[in-house]
Every structure is written in structure tokens, then in C-alpha cells.
Amino acid sequence: LTAEETGRIGGMMTKKKKGLNIPKNDEFF
Fold it and tell me: How far is CA 29 from the centre of its chain?
């Protein structure tokens, strides 16, 4: 992943985490 892609995915996962409470270790799975 490029830095831009990582940032974009990180942003999406942050939004999902707020709703689903996903642990950080599971963000990319």
C-alpha cells in the first residue's frame, strides 16, 4: 500500500471502529 492508500484505509477503519468497536489488530482483516 502507498501512504495515501494506508491513510484512506485507516480513515475508513476508524469510522467503522466507532460503530462496530473493532480491535486495532483486526483492522485490516
Answer: 10
